[in-house]
Amino acid sequence: MAAQDKLALVTGATGTIGPALIRRLLNKGYRVRVLFRGPPLPGSLPESVAQFLADITDSHTVNRAVSGVDVVFHLAAKVHASDPSSSLQAEYERVNVQGTQCVTDAAQAADVRRLVFFSTISVYGPSQPPEVLDESSPLRPQSLYAQTKCEAEEIVLSARQGKKKGPLAVVLRLAAVYGPHVKGNYARLIAALRRGWFVPLGDGCNRRTLIYNEDVSKAALLAAERPEAAGQIYNVTDGHIHTLRDVLGAICRALDKSPPKYYCPAAPARVLAGAIEDVFRSVGVRPPVNRALVNKLVEDVAVGGDKIRKELEFRSEFALTQGWHRSLRET
Question: Dihedral of the CA atoms 124, 127, 133, 139 (nearest 10)?
């Protein structure tokens, strides 16, 4: 089947990954539908893209969006938040687990050829130097986000194609994704570095694993089109293990700023953050910093992406400095 005869559905298309994926699909000749909860910004999507507006657990609309589709790219999720309230557990379960079940059921009923599910390397939990985690490593999720992604992985990997009965899904465990309009912790980090307010914790040698959003879209298309990818799990990284110092240096070069000169030892930072957290929580106010944030900044996350490079011949096109330059230029 020629690419121009293929129809793709992208769920949750308004984040860091969605726009890059849609551009790549259109450039490859795919026809594209999107399904998202809230309306996109005016002009943010090409006119040729068909839009379905609904909650990811709305089975009626999800079934309509999936009907006639060849490939589903399931991005929609309630994303990671630092130290979320336990009251959010139901919402994480609803969106990340029930929503994934809804999309998977629709894909099976519509005899979709491939479901590409976007998961996270957070399912492994932190690494312990000098280990580098891979797809065979045990899963030790430490957040509601990661826990529900583990549950969602089980759902998609158990699904089968309607007629062929072979595996329906491919799971992509993404490294920390950055790109234009990046949100969350990296957005806050960029703002602090731009103002010269950021003081790194620890010695900066803790490891990080990243991937630029355009490279995610490249890996996703390989996962959709390569027959041998069916039923597989792949870590998606830029092929390198970086230190926090590497990441800060790349961002600062993109900002034309000097990288931080001083680093705060992690132990006193934890004590100070804990004291601030306790005081704010005692008066019913959300603290600006907490123990969980400090732990996140100093944790080690080293994950390898050899499997997708060997099996699908994936190669990252964007090195760390290049990716951050492009991210901040287009933000």
Answer: -20
